[in-house]
Structure prediction request, 173 residues.
Amino acid sequence: MSVDAGQARTWFVKVDGRVYGPYTSPQMRGYVSEGRVADYTLVSVERDGAWKPAADVEILASWIEDNRKVSQAAAETEDPANLLVITEVRSGVGDAVASVLRRYGETVDIVPGVWLVRARTTASALRNDLSHLLDREDRLFVVDASRDRSAWFNFASEADAKVRGLWRGNESA
Prediction:
């Protein structure tokens, strides 16, 4: 295991049996802040190493907790956000998704798979809450129209890179 100042230099992430990485500690911290690495995310410091939930790795758990505190504080102090939630649900959990959205606040079902939600939360927090319900065939995109933020789940790496680049203003992504 490569260690640098108590932190693994490289990290691997396993999602639906697929291994991604290596990622540096700064990349992992960024993924935590985006909500792409959560308590339940399986991680290892070696591609073929022992996998454990990120919550069981001290440094990752501390980043996740820090991120949770920042997100909660922001959500509690700011006005409710207008969140556009777009889903492609093939696994049959559409009713469960709608139920979770209604727990957050006022919800309007615009067309099948698209909702407008007014809630005191962030796009990342909502994505993280919904991602537990979704299967590998399901897709999710959340736009925080009030704060110019977005979060998504289950996009192929090429689509992920294009969305990330365009959202940040790099049209050629």
